[in-house]
Design a protein that fits this description.
- By secondary structure, the protein is an alpha+beta fold.
- It has one domain: Creatinase/methionine aminopeptidase superfamily (Creatine Amidinohydrolase).
- About 30% of the residues lie in helices and about 25% in strands.
- The strands form 4 sheets. Strands 8-7-9-14-15 form a 5-stranded antiparallel β-sheet. Strands 1, 2, 4 and 5 form a 4-stranded antiparallel β-sheet that branches. It has a 3-stranded antiparallel β-sheet with strand order 3-12-11, with no helix packed on it.
- The radius of gyration is 17 Å and the shape is globular.
- It starts with 6 loop residues before the first helix and ends with a strand.
- The protein binds magnesium ion (2 copies).
């Protein structure tokens, strides 16, 4: 069932979203060669807890950290580690959630470490822009298929592919709620968007194949062909006259 939020609840979600966004900014400020993914996770956790919130991902389904940190060909759900040291040329996906006053925020970015390849830079740019293509479709009366189609059709123009096996989702009291928000779809099809829906739109875009594999750590998802992947996510609310990004600093 889709949980519709009233304006007061959306205002509370905005607070969770702000904390989430601030944690991502702190991650961004600290991403450089020589830093471990464990250190980034620690900074994220410290900020969320300092704000009186809880890291949404910590112990979620047994996940052992506060941020998912995934490098290069890793798509999502990378586990922070003291032995994963960032190198010049890496691209780093940081996915963060904060739970505050009963609601979650969920947001992800892909950051470069120093100088990166032209291909990696293009992938990051197109992935971010595909989110905003999707966002332009979010308004009452449009459908989930319009949102997903916007992502998929945009990235295809650049020869990139959309991950199908993992998708966006409703967000609220629970980190993952209805509806499903795939990054592909058919215009005019799927769940109708209505005022008070809160969803995470999160394109996961690959340079090569859209196929992914899961590592035997039980979490990390990587591209099947070993090529790069990027991720960009915000939690947004459907408003009577359009949309608001909740995960903004
Ligand atoms: Mg996320
Ligand atoms: Mg999400």
């Amino acid at each position: 069932m889709i949980q519709i939020k009233n304006p007061e609840q959306i205002a509370e979600m905005r607070k969770a979203g702000r904390i989430t966004a601030e944690a991502l900014l702190i991650a961004q400020e600290n991403i450089r060669e020589g830093v471990s993914t464990y250190q980034i996770d620690k900074l994220v956790r410290e900020h969320i807890e300092k704000c009186g919130a809880k890291p949404s991902f910590l112990n979620y389904g047994g996940f052992p950290a506060s941020a998912c940190i995934s490098l290069n060909d890793e798509v999502i759900h990378g586990i922070p580690s003291k032995t994963r040291i960032l190198q010049e040329g890496d691209i780093v996906k940081v996915d963060v959630g904060a739970f505050y006053h009963g609601f979650h925020g969920d947001s992800a970015r892909t950051f470069p470490v120093g100088r990166i390849s032209d291909e990696a830079a293009k992938l990051i740019e197109v992935t971010e822009k595909s989110f905003f293509e999707a966002l332009a479709q979010v308004k009452p009366g449009n459908r989930i298929g319009d949102v997903g189609h916007a992502v998929d059709s945009y990235v295809k123009k650049y020869g990139f592919s959309t991950v199908k096996r993992f998708i966006g989702h409703g967000v609220g009291h629970a980190l993952h709620e209805q509806p499903d928000v795939p990054n592909y779809g058919t215009p005019g099809r799927g769940t109708r968007l209505c005022t008070g829906m809160t969803i995470a739109i999160e394109p996961m875009i690959n340079v090569g194949t859209d196929e992914v594999v899961q590592l035997n750590d039980g979490w990390t998802v990587k591209t099947a062909d070993g090529k790069l992947s990027a991720h960009y996510e915000n939690t947004v609310a459907v408003l009577p006259d359009g949309v608001m990004i909740l995960t903004k600093a």
